[in-house]
């Protein structure tokens, strides 16, 4: 009762009454592991739960038990200059983009993608593998390495899925700061997105209630007797075909065209956002106050990370590029059928100011002190699902020619990895050297015909037979309670299917040491040449690009476009958007559009109910089935590693 710390050495199932230990004491349970005849001990900090009978291991206690090194020390270790760092407290900092200019002549390191098989609703541990792998590369192979991760949304963090910092001894710390707020990037996106929404409604109100002259006086006010167009307004005049710069020289017809966007309320595509799962905001009515003079319309809220501004943040390669992309965002259509952009609203400059700090990646670290860039967080089912281009480019310069940058693609390979290859790599010009495909035996059993995995189904899943795993072994996976025979079978089948290697990993329990074999395999694979090719040519028609993805990635027989989708594809070609890449919005729970169809479904036609465009982000996104929101390349990366993930 007097001890500040109690070490339980190989106690097995011995019962330790909570009354034996002082409240607040640190409890450490050591489990032996034999390696080359030497008894090593794996240490598990334990949080005592005083419910009379049990001690409960809480993963968060692992994060809190490790004090991060000061962020300025971390920055110095990885080669950043003091003036390139903007500290947010002791453990995280923004990194200025001037680093890219300083290191422009430095060769890039090796670029590694961690992807996953079609997941269960609980996820299969890609973030944990990413962190474990960079810890192994750094601490055990002594190679410069960097992890690049997405910032998690508050929605999943407070939902079933939870945070995205990794887990066990392979996580980003401080975990709470990683999962909540971080350096405010998502809040900046929320503010910028909702500024656009406010500008839309305000513009429609003023156009409905004021004359051309009154609108012109508001848009181009006289300051000390002088009227002057802003650069944004001159750009709008030029798009209208008006080559004038003196406000006094405009004719009444030109003034009318300039001041009236004439937005069609039924064709506004821009919604407000909030970073919370608030289902009652999905559909709302605005404009009911008497001051809005009857300008009532239906709209709704999306989750903040679904904003096109998030996708722009993830794909922009400079502040100037981000500003141009923000200006190109289409928010709706006029009654005459013309697209209306954020620049037409006159807010693109304000958006860039709101986002000026968000464009800088945030520097953090893993439990073992390996550097991590956390930047951007677009979902993979309704956007492209990858962290930022800028974070990857900064990290590749900082690690140097012999170093490694490990990034992660959201959800399964059919969504996140395909979009990494065909959207992110097109935007960045970067090419991956190696792909690590993460899977679990529990997911393979589910895809092989077992029951769906839910919060409480793990015990049921682990009772399924070896045959059940074999049926689903077109992918690879592992689970802590799976038998060695299951693990061996999955490794065997993975290699027979063309994987360069298949390895069980124990990074959750052992940190980097538990991922050292995978790290060595990644190093060897990265030394071999690859033949990277995109899945489709962007000059193909929109319909043919959609069909290519559906047939070659999802295994569909064909696609079927609704009448609305056909009309939209024709319209986008007419507007000059036909050469944009495709970002499929579909369920992440199946290769098909049907979430309950597990494994590799065949004999289905993929329904495209609508086609929309994120012009600022730079992609067309077809809506598959009811979703709002594995050959991905013809040559792709020659070396694909399969990683068995131990789940605890």
TrEMBL record:
One of its GO terms (biological process) is one-carbon metabolic process. Keywords: ATP-binding, Ligase, Nucleotide-binding, One-carbon metabolism. One of its GO terms (molecular function) is ATP binding. Its EC number is 6.3.4.3. GO terms for cellular component: cytoplasm. It holds the Pfam family FTHFS. Pathway: One-carbon metabolism; tetrahydrofolate interconversion. It is an enzyme of class 6 (ligase). The keyword Protein biosynthesis does not apply. CDD domains: FTHFS (cd00477). It comes from the Eukaryota. In the N-terminal section; belongs to the tetrahydrofolate dehydrogenase/cyclohydrolase family. Homodimer. HAMAP family: FTHFS. This is formate--tetrahydrofolate ligase.
């Amino acid at each position: 009762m007097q001890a500040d710390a109690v070490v339980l050495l190989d106690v097995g199932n011995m019962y330790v009454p909570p009354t034996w230990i002082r409240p607040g004491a640190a409890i450490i349970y050591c489990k032996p592991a034999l390696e080359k005849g030497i008894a090593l001990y794996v240490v598990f900090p334990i949080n005592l739960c005083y419910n009379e009978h049990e001690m409960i291991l809480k993963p968060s206690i692992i994060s809190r038990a490790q004090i991060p090194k000061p962020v300025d020390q971390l920055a110095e270790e990885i080669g950043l200059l003091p003036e390139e760092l903007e500290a947010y407290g002791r453990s995280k900092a923004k990194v200025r983009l001037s680093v890219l200019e300083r290191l422009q002549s430095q060769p890039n390191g090796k670029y590694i993608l961690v992807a996953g098989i079609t997941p269960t609703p609980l996820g299969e541990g890609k973030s944990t593998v990413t962190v474990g792998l960079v810890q192994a590369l750094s601490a055990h192979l002594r190679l410069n390495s960097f992890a690049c991760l997405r910032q998690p949304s508050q929605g999943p963090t407070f939902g079933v899925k939870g945070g995205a910092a990794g887990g066990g001894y392979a996580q980003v710390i401080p975990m709470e700061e990683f999962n909540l707020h971080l350096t405010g990037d998502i809040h900046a996106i929320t503010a910028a997105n909702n500024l656009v929404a406010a500008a839309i409604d305000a513009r429609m109100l003023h156009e409905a209630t004021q004359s051309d002259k009154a609108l012109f006086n508001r848009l181009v006010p006289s300051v000390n007797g002088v009227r002057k167009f802003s650069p944004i307004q001159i750009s709008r005049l030029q798009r209208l075909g008006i080559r004038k710069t003196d406000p006094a020289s405009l004719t009444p017809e030109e003034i009318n065209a300039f001041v009236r966007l004439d937005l069609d309320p039924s064709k506004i595509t821009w919604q407000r956002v909030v970073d919370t799962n608030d289902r009652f905001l999905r559909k709302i009515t605005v404009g009911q106050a008497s001051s809005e003079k009857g300008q009532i319309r239906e709209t709704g809220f999306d989750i903040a990370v679904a904003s096109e501004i998030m996708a722009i943040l993830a794909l922009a390669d400079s502040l100037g590029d981000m500003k141009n992309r923000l200006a190109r965002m289409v928010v709706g259509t006029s009654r005459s059928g013309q697209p209306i952009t954020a620049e037409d609203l006159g807010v693109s400059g304000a958006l860039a100011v709101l986002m000026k700090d968000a464009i800088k990646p945030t520097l953090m670290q893993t439990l073992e002190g390996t550097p991590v860039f956390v930047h951007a967080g677009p979902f993979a089912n309704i956007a492209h699902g990858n962290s930022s281009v800028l974070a990857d480019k900064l990290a590749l310069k900082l690690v140097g020619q012999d170093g490694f940058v490990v990034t992660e693609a959201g959800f399964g390979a059919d969504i996140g990895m395909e979009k990494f290859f065909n959207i992110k790599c097109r935007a960045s010009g970067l090419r991956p050297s190696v792909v690590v495909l993460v899977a679990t035996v529990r997911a393979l059993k589910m895809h092989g015909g077992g029951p769906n995995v839910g919060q409480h189904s793990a015990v049921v899943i682990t009772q399924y037979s070896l045959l059940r795993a074999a049926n689903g072994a077109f992918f690879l996976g592992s689970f802590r309670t799976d038998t060695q025979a299951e693990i061996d079978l999955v490794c065997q089948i993975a290699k027979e299917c063309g994987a360069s290697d298949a390895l069980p990993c124990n990074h959750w329990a052992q940190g980097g040491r538990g991922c050292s074999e995978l790290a060595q395999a990644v190093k060897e694979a990265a030394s071999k040449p690859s033949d990277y090719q995109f899945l489709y040519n962007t000059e193909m028609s929109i319909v043919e690009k959609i069909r290519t993805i559906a047939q070659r990635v999802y295994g569909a027989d064909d696609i079927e476009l609704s009448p609305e989708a056909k009309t939209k594809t024709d319209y986008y070609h007419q507007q000059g958007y036909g050469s944009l890449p495709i970002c499929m919005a579909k369920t992440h729970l199946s290769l098909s559009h049907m979430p309950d169809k597990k494994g590799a479904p065949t004999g289905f036609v993929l329904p495209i109910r609508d086609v929309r465009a994120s012009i600022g982000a730079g992609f067309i996104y077809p809506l598959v089935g009811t979703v709002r929101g594995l050959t991905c390349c013809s040559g792709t990366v020659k070396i694909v590693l399969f990683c068995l993930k131990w789940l605890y």
